[in-house]
Amino acid sequence: MKLNLGCYTRPKEGYVNVDILPWAGVDRIVDLNSLPWPFQDGECEEVIAEDVIEHLGKLTKIEIVRELARITKIGGKVHIRVPCSTHIGALQALQHAHSFYLDSFDSDFSQMCFKCEQRKVVFWWGKITLPFVFPIRLLIRILARFGFISLLIYDLIRNDSKDIC
What we know:
There is one protein chain. The chain has a single domain (about 1-160), classed as 3-Layer(aba) Sandwich (Rossmann fold), CATH 3.40.50. It has an 8-stranded mixed β-sheet with strand order 3-2-1-4-5-8-6-7. Strand 6 (about 115-125) and strand 7 form a beta hairpin. The protein starts with a strand and ends in a 7-residue tail after the last strand. It has helices spanning about 60-70, 90, 135-145, and strands spanning about 1-5, 15-20, 30, 45-50, 70-85, 115-125, 130, 150-160. Helix content is about 15%, strand content about 30%. It is globular. By secondary structure, it is an alpha/beta fold. The protein is built from 3 helices and 8 strands.
């Protein structure tokens, strides 16, 4: 199964589109703040979570990562897009319960569940997207500290660790 979590008004063809409200194109109405999510263990080969997990204030980030790991099959892909914590839009929005930074899914707890295949940053002034790769990492970190990075994109691969996930 391919899953599009928090699809809002942007359903994707070929995916099971999930949201808390019955927008046009929503296939399943689910409150993602309630665990467990109504999907089987390892059921999803691909999960898209764009502009949704920062809103899940009833869950901790660890609970979110665990649930994403639970529903994603080993080797499955998870695509996450969240606001960068240093951008004004990330913290001024009252509905944003979590903040994320450049290394949020490439370090600490998430490494036990996922391998971060790729990170990208989106600049605040437009649709310019850059990969977070060695030659420009320092520049991106500086620009992020000053609020010039608006969105972070993570492409994760579910690994086979069962330690905590």
